[in-house]
Write a structure and sequence with these properties.
With 251 residues, this protein is mainly alpha-helical. The chain has 15 helices and no strands. It has helices spanning 2-12, 19-24, 31-40, 47-56, 63-79, 83-99, 103-113, 119-129, 134-147, 153-159, 165-178, 184-190, 196-209, 212-221, 227-244. Helix 7 (103-113) packs parallel to helix 9 (134-147). It is globular.
Length: 251
């Protein structure tokens, strides 16, 4: 598949720029090609990509492609769009969140709404969090992390006690993004989580939260025998120290 070849080549050879060619085949009748093309355009901010996403996400017949389109709309909203276009993105994402038949598409639309501001978006996140499915609740927690506001702290702390590792993971992502020093103790406790990915998420969150309590615990973890924990702790410690003293050189 030519599109997949271009994507793979561009990923390994940055001097090969295929964005213009990929944009030209976004309408390929094969959904696998459309999926590969969107993956290959995941770093471009070309206006043509945004136009295509806005025009086609609600009529695209492949749910996998719609998922990626919803995520790309969030990325573009975060990276490169003026206020007028943000309003259009907001409206489209809301329609997808409310109306798409596929749960995975709706949850990705909610995640992308997390990049935007407004009481209506906070209400959508609350609606997603109240959903019966673990997947939608997970996406709501992820959107809380993208919002990074104090409004979500209590919910995220509560989810650290969830039976679902996916929810604990996303709650830690959100707590790290929010960066409230008062949550450091709870996040430290989560390092002992039985799920390895959740434990690593707790370490990463500590680096974002910072503060002396986090720094002290991360210093202890740097010397543990588990190489994954030690490496994650070293990276998080550097981040926490840099936050505490932006002029401090990283050693």
């Amino acid at each position: 598949m030519l599109a997949r070849t271009m994507v793979d080549d561009a990923a390994t050879a940055i001097e090969h720029q295929y964005s213009r060619a990929l944009l030209a085949v976004l309408d390929d009748p094969d959904p696998d090609v459309r999926l590969a093309v969107l993956e290959g355009l995941s770093e471009t901010t070309a206006p043509e990509l945004l136009d295509y996403l806005l025009e086609h996400i609600e009529t695209e017949d492949d749910a996998r492609v719609r998922q990626l389109m919803a995520l790309e709309l969030g990325r573009l909203a975060f990276e490169s769009v003026d206020d007028d276009r943000l309003d259009v993105i907001r409206d489209v994402l809301f329609r997808v969140f409310e109306n798409d038949v596929a749960l995975d598409v709706r949850r990705r639309a909610l995640e992308s709404l997390g990049y935007l501001e407004g009481e209506d978006i906070q209400e959508a996140i609350e609606d997603g969090y109240a959903d019966f499915s673990i997947e939608m609740r997970s996406s709501a927690l992820h959107a809380m992390g993208l919002q990074a506001t104090q409004r979500w702290v209590d919910i995220c702390l509560e989810e650290l006690r969830s039976d679902e590792a996916e929810l604990r993971f996303e709650a830690l992502f959100a707590l790290g993004s929010i960066g409230d020093l008062r949550t450091a103790s709870d996040v430290i406790d989560a390092i002992e989580d039985e799920d390895a990915e959740v434990a690593l998420a707790a370490i990463h969150a500590l680096g974002e939260i910072g503060g002396q309590m986090a720094i002290n615990r991360l210093r202890q973890l740097v010397d543990v025998e588990n190489p994954a924990i030690a490496e994650a702790a070293e990276d998080a410690l550097q981040e926490a120290q840099l936050t505490a003293n932006p002029l401090r050189p990283l050693l």
